[in-house]
Structures are given as C-alpha cells and as structure tokens.
Amino acid sequence: MGEDDAKRQKTEGTEVKTEDAVMKEEPPKEPEAPKEQEQDAVVSKAKPLKPEVSFEPSDCTLNVVPTLAGKVLMPLTDGGLQYLIAGARANVGVKKGRYVYEVKIVEILNPSEGQNRGARGPMPRNLVRVGFSTQDSSLFLGDAEDSVCFDSEGMFTSEKKRTGVSQRFTKDQSIAVVLNLDAASPNANTVSLFKDGVRVSQPQKLPAGMVGKPLFPHVNFKNVTLQVNFGSTTVPLPFKCHSVQQVPAADGVASPEQPKGVKFE
Q1: What is the pLDDT of residue 264?
Q2: Stretch 45-67: mean pLDDT, rounded?
Q3: Cα separation of 99 and 153, whole Å?
Q4: Quick count: other Cβ atoms within 10 Å of Cβ 139?
Q5: Does the pLDDT value for residue 42 go beyond 80?
Q6: Rg of the chain over all Cα atoms, to the nearest angstrom
Q7: Which residues lie closer than 8 Å to 209 by C-beta, 6 or more apart?
Q8: Rounded to an integer, what distance in angstroms lies between the CA atom of residue 204 and that of residue 262?
Q9: Contact indicator for 54, 90 with CB cutoff of 8 Å
Q10: Over 136-168, what HEC string results?
Q11: Which of these ranges, 29-33, 136-140, 171-175, has the smallest mean pLDDT?
Q12: Structural domain spans, the chain
C-alpha cells in the first residue's frame, strides 16, 4: 500500500466517524407548556345575585330563538337569515373576582340556500364566538373596542384585531371561558379558553378600556344551536373556579330589569 493510499484510508475513516457522531445527536426537545398559574377558588358563602343568569330579549338580536328557559339558543335561518350572526348578552356582569361560563354546540345547521343554491355565501358557514362585553356594547362581538371574544376558528378578537391564539372547536365539545378580574392573580384582567377541560389559549389581556367595568358573558353564533351553561361546568377545569351563576353582589352587577308588560317582537 502506497503512502497516498494510507492517507486516503485514514481520511475516509475520519469522515465516517464524523457522520456517525452527527447521526447520534439527539433531536431538540420541544419547549414545555407554560405552568398553569390559576389556583383553586376559595369556597364562598356569599349569596349569588338574585336574578338567575339568563338572556333578556332586549340584549339579543332579533334572530335569536331562546328555548329551554334560555339555556339553548337557536338562530332564525329562513329567507336569507342564515347569513346573519345572532348575538346574546347575559343579564349579570362581573366586576371583580374570577368566574367561568360554558357553551356547547349541540347542533350544526345547514339551511337551504333557496334561489341562491350553488352560490358561495359568507364563510365560515357555521360560527361561534364566546367572550365578554360591557353592558352598552354592540351585540356583535369584535365590532368595537368594548368586547373581547374567542371564536370557533381558533381566533381571538380584541380592540377589533383578530389573532390566532387558540384551537378550533366544533359540535359536542365543552368550551369554557374564564374571566379573571382578581387583582392579586398573576393572570389579572385576562380571559382564557378551555376545551373539554384543557387550556387551549394562554391568558389574553383585556383592553385598557374594559378594565374596571362590569363585563357580561356574551355569545355570537351562526347556523348552530348553542347550549349555554352559567352554572357549574360539566367538564372539570385544571383548577376550581366559581361559575357566573355564583357571582355575589360584591363581585357583580345585574342589568336593569325590563319594564313589565313590554313585549319584544
């Protein structure tokens, strides 16, 4: 074997060893999920506000059809109404503390397009938005700076800006919205979204203009039947949290009562 052959063999051996070393390198580890900072709520003996949390006709768009004592909401879908978003705001707001409410899509509606069959309507065809708003805000979440919401497309809307911060959700999934107005919490003045008991968004800051004001549970929906639960969540969260139905007078406020005898058509 000549001197050149010996050098070549030595060099090739080195290259093989280098390749082996590269192949043995471990892939980078995925970053760990942020630690849950929400703590279990302290048991409260305070009496809840008198009115049962529900949706008053004056705080609903005309295409909302409440059923089962307002616990299930349906939209009108005839004559082109399937293209419109329905909106409903609850009659009890939160001004401090941490509270949760829950929604579930129980039916996906596919109304006939009528004469427009074959034409592509506004997308998405089915939509849900869940969030909070001030008492005098628009019934359409995200239209102004006095409401915030998560939607079924995985987006969060605040100050009329829409960003992807969570996950999509659909029929038969339990969706919980947590509002944290506890000044002592690291998540103070935020909203969070949970799907089937699992956090799917990090706490999202409320706009400065909403801080310090009572905030009311608020939903928008299109071509779905929506079940709304203001009581204890049907799927446990990673921490114990009081429901909106448990809001006491010290932490909440009720909407003005509707005049008796007034009908909304």
Answers
A1: 47
A2: 95
A3: 24
A4: 19
A5: yes
A6: 26
A7: 145, 146
A8: 39
A9: yes
A10: CCCCCCCCCCCEEEEECCCEEEECCEEEECCCC
A11: 29-33
A12: 55-254
Predicted structure pTM score: 0.84
The span from the CA of 240 to the CA of 233, in Å, is 10
* Long-range CB contacts for residues 180-185, cutoff 8 Å, separation at least 24: 180/38, 180/98, 181/94, 181/95, 181/96, 181/97, 181/98, 181/215, 182/96, 182/97, 182/98, 183/96, 185/37, 185/38, 185/39, 185/98
**Distance, CA of 11 to CA of 17 (rounded, Å):** 10
Question: Which tokens in the block code for residue 110?
Answer: 């596919």
Alpha carbon separation from 247 to 15, 45, 66, 144 (Å, rounded): 70, 11, 23, 26
Beta-strand (E) ranges in the chain? 55-60, 64-67, 72-75, 86-90, 92-94, 97-108, 127-133, 147-151, 155-158, 161-164, 175-181, 190-195, 198-199, 204-205, 216-222, 224-229, 242-243, 252-254
- pLDDT at residue 150 is higher than 70: yes
Beta bridge pairs of residue 242: 99
pLDDT at 213 over 70: yes
83 neighbors 94 (Cβ within 8 angstroms): no
Our CA angle for 233, 237, 243, nearest 5°, is 40
* The token pair that represents 216 in the structure block: 């009311």
On average, the pLDDT of the chain sits at 88
* pLDDT given for residue 34 in this prediction: 75
Q: Which residue has the tokens 């938005």?
A: 129
Closest CA to 200 of 143, 146, 151: 151
Q: Which helix (H) or strand (E) holds 16?
A: helix 3-23
For domain 55-254, give the CATH number: 2.60.120.920
